[in-house]
Amino acid sequence: MRKEKPKYKQIIDAAVIVIAENGYHQAQVSKIAKQAGVADGTIYLYFKNKEDILISVFEDKMAVFINRLQVIVDRNETASEKLQKMIESHFKVQTDNKHLGIVTQLELRQSNIEVRAKINAILKGYLDLIDEILRQGVNAGDFRANMDIRLARQCIFGTIDEVTTSWVMKDQKFDLLALAPKVYELLLNGIKS
Amino acid sequence: MRKEKPKYKQIIDAAVIVIAENGYHQAQVSKIAKQAGVADGTIYLYFKNKEDILISVFEDKMAVFINRLQVIVDRNETASEKLQKMIESHFKVQTDNKHLGIVTQLELRQSNIEVRAKINAILKGYLDLIDEILRQGVNAGDFRANMDIRLARQCIFGTIDEVTTSWVMKDQKFDLLALAPKVYELLLNGIKS
Amino acid sequence: MRKEKPKYKQIIDAAVIVIAENGYHQAQVSKIAKQAGVADGTIYLYFKNKEDILISVFEDKMAVFINRLQVIVDRNETASEKLQKMIESHFKVQTDNKHLGIVTQLELRQSNIEVRAKINAILKGYLDLIDEILRQGVNAGDFRANMDIRLARQCIFGTIDEVTTSWVMKDQKFDLLALAPKVYELLLNGIKS
Amino acid sequence: MRKEKPKYKQIIDAAVIVIAENGYHQAQVSKIAKQAGVADGTIYLYFKNKEDILISVFEDKMAVFINRLQVIVDRNETASEKLQKMIESHFKVQTDNKHLGIVTQLELRQSNIEVRAKINAILKGYLDLIDEILRQGVNAGDFRANMDIRLARQCIFGTIDEVTTSWVMKDQKFDLLALAPKVYELLLNGIKS
DNA sequence: TATGAATGAGGATTCATTCAT
DNA sequence: GATGAATGAATCCTCATTCAT
Predict the structure, then answer these.
(1) Which residues bind DNA (chains A, B, C, D) (predicted)?
(2) In this structure, which long-range contacts are made by residues D147-154, counting pairs with CB atoms below 8 Å and at least 24 apart in sequence?
């Protein structure tokens, strides 16, 4: 599998650095190749085209969020606790990697509709897990029975996303993780039964 | 004042159509000029450069949201009622113009950091009005006293934005306006005292 | 005659200022019109096109050189004295108008071949007068009999021109007029019998 | 070193031909690329921008003049002989390449101030060698002791330049090289002791 | 005469991708 | 697998000139 080859990872990491430090529109393939320490042409042995690099970057980084959330969902806890852990986990991953937020919240959003559609398909795996928590909460009677799952999830993700983007745009100057309890409280109030 | 000249408006409207129908990266100045029924050079009598067109488009369209919200804020009603009207107004404006959502939710987000920074400055006028409603609600005892205004606003705007984007990406197939009551209920639960 | 109309002169003078202060390639017709205090379109009531303005500027300014030289040539003096006066006169005119040198020595030389050809035609009136002095000198036995008039004139004009250009490029910092005696000596040695 | 790559030279030579045959303002990069037999983009692997091409053209061609003059200066001859050889060499180089004079005397002079400044810096290498000959002549007692070196050089270069330009503008119809002895005589008379 | 809004042709440059080595 | 020189399509903006008023 291509993802296991060392150069694949090398190029992905280089792309994150180049995009974060130069911005989406200044992240030329040649710059990524240089950062990765390979020739321009080598990129095309591992990626179909530039679009493929960008999508792979998102996929690679999103996997961290998804894997952690999967662990949370699989635990034997209440939906409210899972919601809380989810928010904390999301903010924790962003806090741990300065480049990540710049890339996911600002730069990759400048990509064109086609790339964004593929990014959304990847994001769906994450959103589905949030839905799962919400369904668990409804079934357990923790969350309101007549709640629109999709809407609730859009509220949760929209809020987390907006807060994260705001934090990135403020140069990550404040403690994002410290906001988790207040975000949790706000969101829980909206959905609890 | 330039905005009162008919051609200024003509070009703005042409830009919205061209961007919505061709996409951000295929919205060439010459295409906008043709759509507006003017010569390419005429564009530059009304706009400094292409960036200026895009920012002006956002400014012009955002003004509709802001003006309507200002009216709502100025009314003699409870903060909860204003929140409700705000959500309805937001969805109403989006519903009334098929092109608008494509431009604000999808296409203009592909613009570079400089344009986005200017877009955010315009957006701030809208966010400030939401903050105003929240402050009014807290002062009147309708909303929780210890509520973080900024966080609550990020929750509200993040949710509305996410719902709207989702509606646009689903080709505006369902009735966005019909979602307003449920969105209102969800958000109000999160902040009411 | 168009040259006697006040606006004609107004535009010529404006052109000299605009060219000197902005450079040839930044001397747009609209800038000249603004400096002259007329509308863009008005320019075209007095000049056929932009080229015509530039040529007229050269013609107008060159007339000063030519008229003064004509007076010198018509005097009852030796050719050597006339040569001396000519050099002094040339440097004097340049010294008297700071803008003139910038326009004639640097900026107008950036014009295209067609304009330069017309400029050369105007210059010919000046060169012919130099030839006249040289012929007088040869006839009077002051200058070498076997001298090639055209070559001698090219030497004289080439030297004066090179010295003047050098003075302009050194920001007219030194006293050009003070060089006249040495230039005269150098050139006279080359041609005297 | 870039100058040793065949394509660098290819492009320089193509630029000379295109400029000479089409004129400075009609010498588009794409035309130069086509003449050089390379793609437009290839130009930019060897030159920073169009300005860089033009300056490089002048530099490359001026090197011929400078190298030949350096050889002359280094010889064990009198300053007068060197002056004579210099004039002959200058006219010889111009005579050998029909395109060269058009480019150096007419077309490149239409370039803007920035390019001209860089061209003048290159030209300085040539002028310095003329100064060297003059200093040698003064020291050896061949040229006048109280002579102003700079002025004498301006006279020499101004004359050669004027004669050459005149020859180019007359479509190189007469024998430029045949003028060398008379030019030499004229200039030598001006400076010899 | 005078105005000035409108016109529209024209070109340098970037960069994702290829392919001979 | 790896290289990197070469490709070439694609677009924003300027400004001389016109002409309806």
Answers:
(1) 28-47
(2) D147/C186, D147/D191, D148/C182, D148/C186, D151/C163, D151/C179, D151/C182, D151/C183, D151/C186, D152/C186, D152/D190, D152/D191, D153/D127, D154/C159, D154/C162, D154/C163, D154/C166
